[in-house]
Amino acid sequence: MAPPLPGPLAHLAPLLGHYGYWAVGAVVLVEDFGVPAPGETILIAAGTYAGAGRLNIVAVAALAFAAAVAGDNIGYLIGRSGGRAFVQRWGRYVFLTPERFRTAEEFFTRHGGKIVTVARFVEGLRQANGIIAGTSGMPWRRFLAFNALGAALWVGLWATLAYEAGTHITALYDEITRYQLYALIALGVLAAALVGRHLLRRRHRS
User: Fold this and answer.
1) What is the number of alpha carbons within 13 Å of residue 67 lying toward its C-beta?
2) CA-to-CA distance for 27 and 29, rounded, in angstroms?
3) Closest by alpha carbon to 48, among 161, 172, 171, 173?
């Protein structure tokens, strides 16, 4: 008998009950190339089920990791094959001029590994980081390495916490996501500072 899932996880009980591991893999996969889907939530719910003996935690973690890496690589291919042309054609309408786009590419090339790893833990960035990496021209092997690292850390954190915490996971999740907001603000400030420094250096050299 599956345990009742707490709070916001409850609506995933029928999906996990019917499809089990397949649900985890499919939802994590599609979330990671930009489709709005509760990838992190279903990972946590599956970890809770595993803690109650309904699923195997090793299988949950392995499948979520594989789906996360595969999904981000699909996003990377989307960005690499069509993203640049789209930005160059339509970017000026959202104030993304060719000069600003080149600056963003240079920034991502220099700091992209850190961004890809951290993006896994940030809602919004998790879904888009593969597409951004592909659009900016980040080398695929470099992207794959940092993407796999971020996926391993992300899956390891949430699968382990859900497995150990059981039905108390929602309170723990709320506490952690509160600090994620502060981390995102700090990351944004750091990114703006680095871009600003880069632009000042280019202006002084010209």
Assistant:
1) 25
2) 5
3) 161
Judging by beta carbons within 10 Å of its beta carbon (0-12, 13-18, 19+), is residue 133 exposed, middle or buried? Answer: buried
Which of helix, strand or coil describes residue 95?
Answer: coil
More confident residue, 93 or 46: 46
pLDDT band at 94 (very low <50, low <70, confident <90, very high): very low
Mean pLDDT over all residues of the chain?
A: 77
- Helix, strand, or coil (residue 12): helix
CA dist 119 and 127 (Å) reads 9
- Under DSSP, the state recorded for 54 is S
Q: What is the pTM of this model?
A: 0.74
Q: Which pair of structure tokens corresponds to residue 190?
A: 């750091």
Confidence check: pLDDT of 1 > 70: no
Task: Map tokens 């940092």 to a residue.
Answer: 146
CA-CA distance, 135 to 103, in Å (whole number)?
13
Please state, in angstroms and rounded to a whole number, the distance separating the CA atoms of residues 176 and 184.
12
